[in-house]
Each structure stands twice: as C-alpha cells, then as structure tokens.
Amino acid sequence: AQTVTQSQPEMSVQEAETVTLSCTYDTSESDYYLFWYKQPPSRQMILVIRQEAYKQQNATENRFSVNFQKAAKSFSLKISDSQLGDAAMYFCAYRTTQGGSEKLVFGKGTKLTVNP
Amino acid sequence: GAGVSQSPSNKVTEKGKDVELRCDPISGHTALYWYRQSLGQGLEFLIYFQGNSAPDKSGLPSDRFSAERTGGSVSTLTIQRTQQEDSAVYLCASSLGGLRGQPQHFGDGTRLSIL
Prior knowledge:
The structure holds two protein chains of two kinds.
Chain A: E1 3-5, E2 10-14, E3 19-21, E4 24-26, E5 33-39, E6 46-52, E7 60-61, E8 64-69, E9 74-79, E10 88-96, E11 103-106, E12 110-115
Parallel strand pairs in A: 2-12
Antiparallel strand pairs in A: 1-4, 3-9, 5-6, 5-10, 7-8, 8-9, 10-11, 10-12
Chain B: E1 5-7, E2 10-13, E3 19-24, E4 31-38, E5 42-50, E6 65-69, E7 75-79, E8 88-95, E9 105-106, E10 110-114
Parallel strand pairs in B: 2-10
Antiparallel strand pairs in B: 1-3, 3-7, 4-5, 4-8, 6-7, 8-9, 8-10
C-alpha cells in the first residue's frame, strides 16, 4: 500500500523568506501523480501544485515550486517570498489508481506559521 | 463557477442518532470522493464514485457508514447509530475523472460532533 510521510509537524518562516516542506512516499507504481494541498482554518483544501511522475521537470506555480526526486521518492514544496496568507496546514498527497479505483493518500500534514 | 458545496457546515448530534451529510459536486464532474479528517487519523479515504460504475467502498470504516450518489450528481453520506469516534470533519471532493491527473476539488467540509 502507498504511504506518504511528512516528517515536519510544524514549520515557521519569516515573511518574505523561503521555506521548504518535506514529503516522502512509498509506492510500487511507476506512473502516478503527487499533489500539495493547503488547508487554512476555513477547512477548505486548496490545491497548491501537482507533479506528474513521468515528467522530469519540477512543477512551478508562481511562488510555489517542488523538488521531485523520483528515485528517492521525495517531493518537497518550496515557498518563496512567504506571505502571511501562506500560513496554513500543508498536506502532501499521492494519487493512486490501483484496482480501477482512485483516491488520494495524504501525509499527516505540516503546520506552517509565517511570522511578520 | 460554483465549487463543491457541502451541507450542513456543522452538525451536533447525540450518540446513537443517524446523520446525513450532503455533497453537491462541481457541475460536470463525474468523479466524487468522501474523506474523513480526524485528529488521530489524519485524512482518510472513505468512498469513490465514478459515473455509473460501482463505487469503491473500501474505505468505509464500518457497516454503519453508507453513501449514495443519485443521478450522477449529489451524494449523501449516512452514518447510522453514531458513536463518539465518528466525530470528525467529513470532506467531499469532485474531479473530472477518467482523465489523467485531474486534481480533486474539495468542499469546506462538515464538522460532525457526537455528544
């Protein structure tokens, strides 16, 4: 079964600085998708960025980028020029389609605090 | 356009009562998912619907949990004889489904509290 591990329960960063959130996963699949979701106190899970495993190029969305290391099964999220609005829980997720079904397997999350 | 809509936003009920949680997916999305988010267990998959195919119910924790999706759109998650361990946030998501890597879009969730 696929597992997703986020080893940092909490992280903090100064406004305008850069922070990297870690994520590792375990899978026997060769083709899959990885996602980072953000969950502010409002509870809604907001898609931040996604990565296709067969693509070597790291995904980028404005201030958010990933460092995807397929061989190491690592998928970290870098937030540049951190803003107060970036404060939230961040979840790394693996999309599995085994058995004809489809679901996301989530890590436990990292709580990000942004200090002014 | 409108996102995934869930109701109620919050639900408080007594142990042993039945509850129904509703999810309206994004129009045109054929895939619908339910997840449960609790302090001890994190985010857990419950059930997946795709079009007219048989749903994947492998994540439902007990036979007290059931879900249906009528007309390929609205879904209802029902919990019978609620227990205190059912207290959690129940999140619904939808996606275009059937297409590679389509992201799941989530609603705001229903916070369920069992007294």
